[in-house]
Structure formats: structure tokens, C-alpha cells
What we know:
Layout (H helix, E strand, L loop, with lengths): L1 H25 L4 H69 L9 H5 L1
Helix pairs in contact: 1-2
Amino acid sequence: MSNNRGAFLGGMIIGAAFGSIAGLLIAPRTGRETRKLLKKSADALPELAEDLSTTVQLQADRLSENALRNWDGTLIRLREAISAGVEATQREQQVTRNDVEPPSDSKPVRDRLL
Length: 114
């Protein structure tokens, strides 16, 4: 949800910048006044870009932290599942060994077949 908020905020900042520029160009002012306003807007762009960069970096950090938390949880569940599978296999092998009785003849199977 914070990702959507950051994208919305970034869109608002960019939209405001473009809206300001379009408003300056369409406004009924003299060329000199319009140029002064454009220069002021251009001077403010580095600060605006820095704010946007900071916002994007914060969002990226939050996403990264969430991804790491999710990955750690996934690894824990995977280890538990593998451990449960190994234990179940060992129990099944033990049951299978107990169910198979050795032949009355104590010779190995290879010797009995020959």
C-alpha cells in the first residue's frame, strides 16, 4: 500500500511541475514576466528533483525491507517442510523395514537366486 502512496506522491509532484509550466506559458503575461517566472521555476527544479529522489529512495528501501522479511519467512517455511518430509520418509522406511520379515533361510538373496 505504501508503494501506491509513493507512486501517487511522485505523480502529484511531476504533475504539479508540468501544470505550473503549462500555466506560465498560457497565462496572459508579458514575455519578460513569463521568462522571470520560468527562471524561478527552473531554479526550483533541482530541489524538486531531490525531493522526488528522496521519496523514491525511501519507497525502494521499504520495498526492499518487505521483500527481505517475506523471503526470510519463506525460507523458514521451506526448511520446516523439508524437515517434515525427511522425518516422514524416515518413519515410512522404518515401518516398511519392520513389515518385511527376513526369509527363513539366512542366506543373502544373491546366494538364494543362484
